[in-house]
């Protein structure tokens, strides 16, 4: 046997070679070859723990020719025993009775085995809101076997233990550096100004799963108007349960739920599995007790506003803790993503601010004309016309302010004013409001098609006039903005349908513009969403249709997308008597 001093020199040399490895795969190869030479063995392998599947994957072996050398479950065999206990396992005779049910054959004819867990000891871990203790992290196992009994002594086990501990530190550093490099590249993609709110969030979820290796990611968004935080995007639960999860995972910001605490406290939290702030119904239904989870607040840098949270988790059986280094990487990434979302919101505000100018200028010009010509003797009908123009511009302005409130996240909820409204009059009024918009785009007002007979003209509902005007205006302005560029093909049809047996009337809005893609059907009414076709045509805030949906729902009605293209058709359902909710 080689003298201890010589073994120590060899250990130092191998350790130095490990520090020069540029990637984890090369490091693992150096580790295996060095360990075999250190104990003068011919058979060895390195297994890497796959956190997602719970399997031990073979990454390197010497020799490679073996029909029995296969991936294993992480608790299987002597290597599983070493990994589960965090302790080296030295087996002098694998054929002994006590090992017959544990030992798993990698090479035929083996008698001795050493399994050394590759683990990181004393890692700072996050518990609740603090870095309060040191934890361990399982990485893999170095496994060496021999055809001889009692082939490995205690000194060799000690040398190899020091070697794998040193290798574990380097592996952790290399992988952290790799994650950071990958995330820097992704952050550039996230900052891409062509990506909308939803695309950014979906990319963030993909990266957290693929690069940061979490099993579940849940993005919840704050709704300031309803004072709630609700899950909007979830990955890591079965597909047939996703919709159910999204419907259940909504909580008041005033509640004791963990999500509400994240918004109020603005701190990262890693709750214990039995924390009374966790939704017990969700936890039981989706088996969350098997997970260790971290909640990251999404905080806008400009104003400290928490706009949502990112919840990430993985299976507790393989990784018992949320490691502080991973928390720091995750926090920095979520911060960058929130910054990108903040920029999208600012861009939306700029668009809305630009749109505010037109009605403001209109009101100023109409008022100025009235002042200049008042004393010269304006006729009553001229005064009425100008006042009506001012009122129209004021209604448009009110609509734009409403969009601004939603984009800013302010908690304004003005009461609805119910009165008798003739539906056809409101549609014609909006047509009049949009004449200048159509002419400015080269479209003829004759492209607006509607026919209201005497019965329809007399049709009235009890609802909020201003809100109904906003909804109709938004549907028609969208149809104009996203019309085909060929002015000769411009066409919008509006039809009012009335069935006396129903408690509702139906207004059909049809246009022949760029249309909506099938995959966008289910998200078209989500706040901040803009269709892929519309983004290439016009700037916008992505809040118009969500406002329409919210308003008509509050009045007891509904809005539906019934046809995607040629024509694109929205149907507005209005109750005869609005039931304010």
Pick out its properties:
single chain, 581 residues, Beta-Lactamase, Heat Shock Protein 90, 23% strand
* Class derived from helix and strand content: alpha+beta
- Intertermini distance: 85 Å
Amount of helix:
40-55%
Strand count: 19
CATH class of the largest domain: Alpha Beta
Q: Strand share of the residues? A: 15-25%
CATH topology of the largest domain: Heat Shock Protein 90
The number of distinct helices, counting runs of at least 4 residues, comes to: 16
Using only CA atoms, what is the Rg? Answer: 33 Å
Largest sheet: 7 strands, antiparallel
CATH architecture of the largest domain: 2-Layer Sandwich
Number of domains: 3
Shape: elongated
- Low-confidence blocks of residues: 535-541
Brief summary of the model shown:
This protein is of the alpha+beta class and 581 residues long.
């Amino acid at each position: 046997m080689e003298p201890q001093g010589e073994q120590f020199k060899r250990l130092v040399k191998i350790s130095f070679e490990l520090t020069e490895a540029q990637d984890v795969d090369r490091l693992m190869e150096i580790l295996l070859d060095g360990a075999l030479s250190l104990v003068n063995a011919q058979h060895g392998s390195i297994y890497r723990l796959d956190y997602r599947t719970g399997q031990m994957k073979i990454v390197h072996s010497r020799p490679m020719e073996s029909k029995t050398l296969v991936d294993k479950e992480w608790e299987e065999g002597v290597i599983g025993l070493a990994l589960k206990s965090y302790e080296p396992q030295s087996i002098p005779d694998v054929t002994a009775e006590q090992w017959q049910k544990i030992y798993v054959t990698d090479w035929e004819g083996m008698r001795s085995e050493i399994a050394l867990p590759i683990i990181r000891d004393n890692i700072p871990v996050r518990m609740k809101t603090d870095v309060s203790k040191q934890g361990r992290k399982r990485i893999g196992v170095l496994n060496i076997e021999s055809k001889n009994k009692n082939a490995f002594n205690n000194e060799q086990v000690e040398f190899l233990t020091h070697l794998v501990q040193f290798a574990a530190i380097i592996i952790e550093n290399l992988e952290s550096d790799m994650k950071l490099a990958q995330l820097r590249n992704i952050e550039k993609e996230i900052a891409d100004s062509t990506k909308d709110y939803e695309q950014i969030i979906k990319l963030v979820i993909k990266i957290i799963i693929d690069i940061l290796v979490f099993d579940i990611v849940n993005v919840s968004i704050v709704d300031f108007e309803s004072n709630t935080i609700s899950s909007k995007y979830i990955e890591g639960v079965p597909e047939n349960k996703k919709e159910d999860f999204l419907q259940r995972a909504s909580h008041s910001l005033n509640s004791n739920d963990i999500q509400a605490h994240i918004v109020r406290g603005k701190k990262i939290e890693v709750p214990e599995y039995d924390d009374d702030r966790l939704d017990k119904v969700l936890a039981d239904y989706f088996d969350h007790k098997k997970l260790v989870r971290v909640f990251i607040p999404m905080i806008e840098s400009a104003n400290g506003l928490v706009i949502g949270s990112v919840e990430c988790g993985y299976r507790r059986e393989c990784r018992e803790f949320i490691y502080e280094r991973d928390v720091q990487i995750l926090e920095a990434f979520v911060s960058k993503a929130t910054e990108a979302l903040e920029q999208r919101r600012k861009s939306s505000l700029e668009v809305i601010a630009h749109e505010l100018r037109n009605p403001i200028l209109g009101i100023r010009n109409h008022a100025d004309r009235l002042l200049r010509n008042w004393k010269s003797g304006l006729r009553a009908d001229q005064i009425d016309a100008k006042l009506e123009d001012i009122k129209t511009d004021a209604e448009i302005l009110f609509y734009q302010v409403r969009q601004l409130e939603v984009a800013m996240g302010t908690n304004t909820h003005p009461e609805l004013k119910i009165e008798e409204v003739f539906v056809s009059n409101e549609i014609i009024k909006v047509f009049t409001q949009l004449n200048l918009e159509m002419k400015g785009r080269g479209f003829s007002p004759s492209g607006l098609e509607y026919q209201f007979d005497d019965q329809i003209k007399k049709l009235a509902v009890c609802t909020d006039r201003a809100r109904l005007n906003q909804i109709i205006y938004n549907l028609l302005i969208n149809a104009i903005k996203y019309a085909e560029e060929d002015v000769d093909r411009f066409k919008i049809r509006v039809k009012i349908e009335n069935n006396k047996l129903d408690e509702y009337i139906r207004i059909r809005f049809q246009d022949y513009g760029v249309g909506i893609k099938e995959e966008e059907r289910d998200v078209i009414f989500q706040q901040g969403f803009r269709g892929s076709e519309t983004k290439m045509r016009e700037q916008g805030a992505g809040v118009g249709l969500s406002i329409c949906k919210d308003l008509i729902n509050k009045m007891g009605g509904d809005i539906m997308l019934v046809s995607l293209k040629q024509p694109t058709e929205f149907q507005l359902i209005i109750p005869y008597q609005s039931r304010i909710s």
